UniProtKB/TrEMBL annotation:
Xref: SUPFAM superfamilies: Metallo-dependent hydrolases
Its job: Catalyzes the hydrolytic deamination of adenine to hypoxanthine. Plays an important role in the purine salvage pathway and in nitrogen catabolism.
Residues the record lists as binding substrate: 279
Needed co-factor(s): Zn(2+)
Molecular function terms from GO: adenine deaminase activity; zinc ion binding
NCBIfam families: aden_deam
InterPro entries: A_deaminase_dom, ADE, Ado/ade_deaminase, Metal_Hydrolase
Protein name: Adenine deaminase
Gene Ontology annotations for the cellular component aspect, listed alphabetically: cytosol
Native species: Nocardia colli
Swiss-Prot/TrEMBL site (Important for catalytic activity) positions: 223
Signal peptide: none
Amino acid sequence: MSDLAAFVRGLPKAELHLHLEGTLEPELKFKLAQRNGIELPEKTVDEVKQTYQFHDLTSFLQVYYPAMRVLLEPADFHDLAFDYLTKAHAQGVRHVEMFFDPQAHTGRGVPFATVIDGYRSAIVRARREFGISAELILCFLRDYSAEYAMATLLEALPYRDWIVGVGLDSDERGNPPSKFAAVFARARREGFLLTMHCDIDQQDSIEHIRQALEDIAVDRLDHGTNIVEDDRLVELAKGRGIGLTCCPVSNSFVTTLMKSDEIVALLDRGLTVTINSDDPAYFGAYAADNYVALAEHAGLDLDQLVALAKNSFRASWITPGRLDAFLREIDDYVAANR
Ligand code: HPA
Ligand code: ZN
C-alpha cells in the first residue's frame, strides 16, 4: 500500500452516498443464489464482471436491478449489509448513512419488513462488533410513480426510528424532483431528513438541482456536481451549508471522467464536498479507494484530503457532540501521522 493509501485508510471518515444494493459482490451473489436455489446465467466471478459494461446511468441500472433477485430473506439483506460494513470499517469509515431501495424488492414480492429487518440486524451487529455507526436512508425509485413512492413512505412509517432520511434515485431522465414534491413534503412532516440524487450530466441537470434546493429544500444533494456550472446555485448551496456527496470512481463509469476538476473546484469554492463510493461492488472501489483515486488524479495535497474527511462528518446527520468528537479525532490523527 502506498503512503497515501495508508494515510487515507487511517483517516476517520463518514460515508454518505452508498447504495446497499450496490455492494453486492459477485461472490456473495453466488452464495445467496445457491442458498435460495436460484440459477444464475453466469458461472464465474469473471463472467459476472464481464456484464459490467456501463456507459451511462441507464446502462448501469440495467445490470444493477436484475442482480437483486438473489436477495429474498432477512438473512440475505443482513449478509449484504454486514459484508459492506465490515469492508467500510477496514477502510477507516466510522459512520455511514446508507441508501436502500425498498421498491426494488417490494416490486418483486419481497416484503418491506424482510428488507429492513435484515439491514437493521446487520447495523446493530456491526455497531456491537466493531463500533461503526450506520443509519438508513430510504430511496424512492424516481422512474416509478409518485403514488408508489407515497405508498412506500407510508409503509415505512412504523420503522421511522430505523430510518434517518429519504432520498431519490434510479433513472433521472424525465423524472425531475418536482414529480415527488408532495412525497418529500410529507416525509419532512413525518420528521425525515431529505436528500436526493442529481446525477452527473443529466438532461436538465441544473434545473433539477434548482428544484431540489429551492422547491424541495433538501438537506443534502447526492452527486450534484453539475452545480459548478451555475454560480447562483453554488452560492445558495454554500450559504445553506448543503453537503454534496460526490463519487469520483462512479463518475468515471457512468460518464467519461471522474469529474475531478469540478469536484476540486467546488471544494475550493467552499462547498461541503464529500467523497463516497456509490455502488462499490460495481465500480470496484470502496470509500478510501475513492479518496486515493481522486487524490492521484487531481493531485490533492494532504490538507485537501483532510478537508474532505472533515466535510464527510459536517455533511452527515450526526449530533453536534459526535461531530466535534470526530473532528478532534481527525486533528489528532493528522498530528500523529503527517
Ligand atoms: N444514481 C441513480 N440511481 C442509482 C445510483 C446512482 O448513483 N446508484 C444506484 N442507483
Ligand atoms: Zn447513487
